[in-house]
Amino acid sequence: MMKILALDTSSKYISAAIADGAGGKIIASVHKEADQMQCERLLPEIDKLLKKAKLKVCDLKIIIFSKGPGSLTSLRIGAAAVKGLAFTRKIKIVGVPTLDVIAQGTPLALAQEPSLIVPIVDARRGNVYCSVYSRKGGKIVRKMKYSVIPIAELLKHIKGDTIFTGDGLAAYAQYIKDNFKYKAELAPEKYWYPRAEIVLELGRELIRKKKFEDADKFVPLYVYPKDVQVR
């Protein structure tokens, strides 16, 4: 059975998991805080995980990568590692937007319909990477394109009670409490960061649809300031 590696390097954590097939169980995983130097040692970390699963790189057939937006340096390191493995080992790549991963990781107990889910990732200089989601039947539905905007502007675009999550809450939780005109619930910190298990969950659907990335052209998802609309 094919082995799948799910990987996120977009935050202050390295999160990785190896699964046995597109529908199989996770056989090894790691989720740990990592400084910049550790991110640069990503390949050795992947090798440790493979050894834990009693596998070799040649056993991997697909890598699902949480492609951003997020920490630009860490994303570039992660994308470079994924591309290197893809080229040398002929491994297929699936890219999953990181904001989708954070939104999907919001527990059902918090994000009950009809509440909106808004992940915010600190983009520095008063901006956040963000989008807006609803949840239907246990799955997230994106209602706004991936954006990078000031937190004040984001709040103006949201129309309804909302669960906020993501590491942007470290900087903007109080601002949201003071300025959001609808009911705001703030997810606990343990749900702010992308986890490989959710990367795997979302990536499996793309695998079934055969939506693979072109390894030669694969880059992280870069988001630039643009007009914002919520559907």
Quick description:
The chain has 231 residues and is an alpha/beta fold.
Q: Based on Cα principal axes, name the global outline.
A: globular
Count of the separate structural domains? 2
**What structural class results from the helix and strand content?**
alpha/beta
Instruction: For the largest sheet, list the strands in their spatial order.
Output: 3-2-1-4-5
- Give the CATH topology of the largest domain: Nucleotidyltransferase, domain 5
Measured between the Cα atoms of the first and last residue, the distance is 41 Å
* Percent of residues in helices: 25-40%
CATH superfamily name of the largest domain?
ATPase, nucleotide binding domain
Biggest sheet: strands, sense, closure? Answer: 5 strands, mixed
Ranges with pLDDT <50 over ≥5 residues? Answer: none
Structural overview:
By secondary structure, the protein is α/β, with parallel strands linked by helices. Helix content is 31%, strand content 29%. β4 (60-66), α3 (72-89) and β5 (92-96) form a beta-alpha-beta unit. The strands form three sheets. Strands 3-2-1-4-5 form a five-stranded mixed beta sheet, with helices on both faces. Strands 10-7-6-11-12 form a five-stranded mixed beta sheet, with helices on both faces. Strands 8-9 form a two-stranded antiparallel sheet. It folds into two domains: 3-97 and 194-208, ATPase, nucleotide binding domain (Nucleotidyltransferase, domain 5), CATH 3.30.420; 99-191, ATPase, nucleotide binding domain (Nucleotidyltransferase, domain 5), CATH 3.30.420.
